């Protein structure tokens, strides 16, 4: 299963890099200014920054609480986006 949210923001690149750096101390990460991947224990998190949005894709492993996974990602991104939080996540 794959879930993707397109999060409206002009600061997608900043948030992507902050989240990857934040979790790089615990998990394997690979990122640049436009895209990033985090080897999160619940499943990989993939992000891509565009001019007006941040695309966030999660791939939950079997047995993972999907709602919790979505909330963990949203909560962390909202911490970095405190000036415009809460961000709108339209998971599909």
Write a structural description.
This protein has two helices and five strands, in the order βαββββα. The protein has helices at about 10-25, 65-80, and strands at about 5-10, 30, 35-40, 45-50, 55-60. The longest helix is centred in the C-terminal third of the chain and has 15 residues, at about 65-80. The protein starts with a strand and ends in a 12-residue tail after the last helix.
Task: Provide a concise account of the structure shown.
This protein has helices at residues 12-23, 66-80; strands spanning 3-8, 29-31, 35-38, 45-49, 53-58. With 92 residues, the protein is an alpha+beta fold.
Label the structural class: alpha+beta
Taking the alpha carbons of the first and last residues, their distance comes to 11 Å
How are the strands ordered across the major sheet? 1-5-4-3-2
Mean pLDDT: 97
From the spread of the alpha carbons, the general shape counts as: globular
- Count of individual beta strands: 5
Please give the radius of gyration in angstroms.
12 Å
Residue fraction in strands: 25-35%
Give descriptors for this structure:
about 90 residues; alpha+beta; five-stranded antiparallel beta sheet; 5 strands; about 30% helix
Give the secondary structure arrangement, pairings included:
Elements: E1 3-8, H1 12-23, E2 29-31, E3 35-38, E4 45-49, E5 53-58, H2 66-80
Antiparallel strand pairs: 1-5, 2-3, 3-4, 4-5
């Amino acid at each position: 299963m794959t879930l993707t949210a397109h999060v409206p923001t002009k600061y997608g690149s900043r948030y992507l890099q902050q989240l990857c750096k934040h979790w790089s101390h615990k998990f394997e990460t690979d990122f640049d200014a436009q895209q990033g991947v985090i080897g999160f224990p619940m499943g990989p998190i993939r992000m891509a920054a565009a001019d007006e949005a941040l695309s966030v894709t999660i791939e939950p492993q079997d047995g993972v609480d999907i709602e919790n996974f979505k909330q963990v990602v949203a909560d962390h991104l909202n911490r970095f986006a405190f000036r415009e939080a809460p961000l709108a996540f339209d998971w599909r």
